[in-house]
Write a structure and sequence with these properties.
5-stranded parallel sheet; alpha/beta; 19 helices; 9 strands
Length: 506
């Protein structure tokens, strides 16, 4: 027995001795030779220093200084590198902590909103009222389901038994639609618009999914979109744009990794609701140029350029789940055709300039003064489907195509603008003109006035980016060319715009 313990002791001592020797030789051992190396360098120095001479000693000192400086630089560089790494690592840790805190706050906010909705539902039930926007059974479902999209799931249950059928109004025309809306806005909302403005509105809706209502504050831009929602008996959804918006997540929301739910915005909820409805749905981006439109709305601008409307998909999330809302397929949602986007824009120093990319894809109406009141017969709203509105537009495109005479003269005007101002109309503008002009005529307007509107809003707006002070003679020639091509007394919008440019450059 004693022999075994002696064996065990010797094995244990030998193991740790060898273990320590290994690490000593690996880490400390190589440095033993350093002293010998220095001695070797000293021997070399003793051999040659007596023969250096003055010049040799000077070079020896210079080399020594350079060597010390190089070693110091290497050491300082290593110090900075280590310091930068430590700082970067600390910053990343701070980012992770901040990200976790933001996710936690979002989760607490989600819980607080859900609690508020439950309390509101109890209050409504206690009063014996029915609130279609907050049905208790639908809200209970949202609280219980595992869907990543609570608001959109709520919409699914809200519209589970909804009858979206809207019968067509027989013998209805675009011109009647214009007159009825104008009288409705005046008689019920005390909003007064000229008939030309309403024609431009509906012709614009026949041309583009994006309408821009711009001008000075207080001229009824947001009110027009609000009135249109009331007229079609489905209120417009007004979403206030914030100056901090920089990408699409501000507009539609984002997936929260902490809660495992999608933080849906009111914009997304309104867009999804439109998939269940057949009427015209209006979503307003109020003060849209407080942030850069081409940043947060870029994906929509691109998608709505696709010729196939079945490809107008917006990706919400890149994964698929069986619990996703009914009209979200493979993480994507199709933009419904019955949605119209309205953007209001104030032209002042607190906003961004709307880029040509946005203007080229939209139709803009400019408001420069308040409407003049007029007597209007009391007019009821209409229950109007988007399909019927679209069919009226198709009929207009077939019944009132642009005349060959106008197209030829417009082509000559295009050549003149290219030669004098180096600007071209482009295929997109010509395509929009072929949709806008017939619809404007069907609304009761004149073809020449519709062409004037397109030229002013699509071409002359681009002149603001030119140095107009050096183009005064060319602008004067453009005024004469318009009279030559289309006759004096026509193109009143274009003449007014050109004259304003000349005054500003004087």
């Amino acid at each position: 027995m004693n022999a075994y313990f002696s064996y065990l002791q010797e094995v244990f001592v030998s193991f740790w001795k060898h273990f320590c020797t290994f690490w000593y030789d690996a880490i400390i051992g190589p440095w033993h030779k350093v002293g010998g190396n220095f001695q070797h360098y000293g021997n070399i120095f003793d051999t040659y220093n007596s023969s250096f001479g003055v010049a040799g000693w000077i070079f020896f000192v210079l080399f020594a200084i350079l060597a010390v400086a190089a070693l110091g630089a290497i050491g300082f560089g290593l110090f900075l590198l280590i310091k930068k790494y430590v700082k970067f690592y600390k910053k990343e840790l701070d980012k992770d902590a901040l990200r976790e805190q933001v996710d936690r706050l979002n989760y607490e906010l989600y819980q607080a909103v859900a609690e508020k909705d439950r309390i509101l539902g109890l209050q409504v039930n206690a009063l014996g009222l029915k609130n279609p926007e907050l049905r208790k059974d639908a809200q209970d479902v949202v609280d219980e389901v595992s869907s990543r999209f609570p608001k959109l799931t709520w919409v699914d249950h809200q519209y589970a038994d909804f009858d979206s059928t809207i019968p067509d109004i027989p013998d209805f025309t675009l011109e009647e639609l214009v007159n009825r809306f104008r009288l409705f806005a005046a008689s019920q909302l005390h909003l007064y618009y000229t008939v030309d403005t309403i024609r431009q509105l509906f012709a614009g809706m026949a041309t583009s999914k994006l309408m821009i209502l711009e001008g000075i504050s207080g001229t009824g831009k947001t009110s027009m979109a609000y009135a249109l929602g009331k007229f079609f008996q489905y209120d417009a959804n007004i979403c206030s744009v914030q100056p901090s918006w920089k990408d699409r997540s501000e507009l539609i929301g984002y997936y929260n990794e902490f809660t495992k739910k999608f933080n849906e915005t009111e914009f997304l909820r309104a867009l999804y609701t439109a998939t269940y409805r057949k009427d015209i749905n209006i979503i307003v981006l109020d003060e849209m140029n407080l942030a850069r439109i081409e940043y947060y709305f870029a994906e929509f601008l691109s998608v709505m350029e696709m010729p196939n409307i079945n490809e107008w998909n917006i990706e919400l999330i890149n994964t698929y789940s069986n619990d996703d809302p009914k009209n979200v397929h493979n993480g994507k949602m199709l933009i419904p055709q019955n949605v119209m986007f309205f953007g209001t824009a104030n032209n002042d120093d607190s906003t961004f300039t709307i880029s040509d990319k946005v203007y080229d894809r939209a139709v803009s109406l400019f408001f420069d003064n308040k409407g003049i009141a007029f007597d209007a017969e009391f007019t009821e709203p209409v229950n109007f489907s988007y399909d019927q509105f679209h069919q009226l537009c198709v009929n207009a495109w077939n019944d009132y195509p642009i005349s060959e005479s106008i197209l030829n003269r417009f082509g000559e005007l295009d050549n003149f603008v290219i030669a004098k101002f180096k600007l071209a109309f482009g295929n997109r503008i010509l395509k929009q003109m072929k949709a806008f002009v017939p619809a404007y005529v069907a609304c009761g307007g004149a073809e020449i006035d519709a062409v004037d509107f397109i030229f002013t809003n699509k071409i002359l707006k681009k002149f603001e980016s030119l140095n107009v002070a050096f183009l005064r003679d060319e602008l004067g020639e453009l005024n004469l060319k318009l009279d030559e091509l289309f006759g004096e007394g026509t193109f009143t919008m274009a003449h007014k715009y050109i004259n304003n440019l000349l005054k500003m450059s004087a």
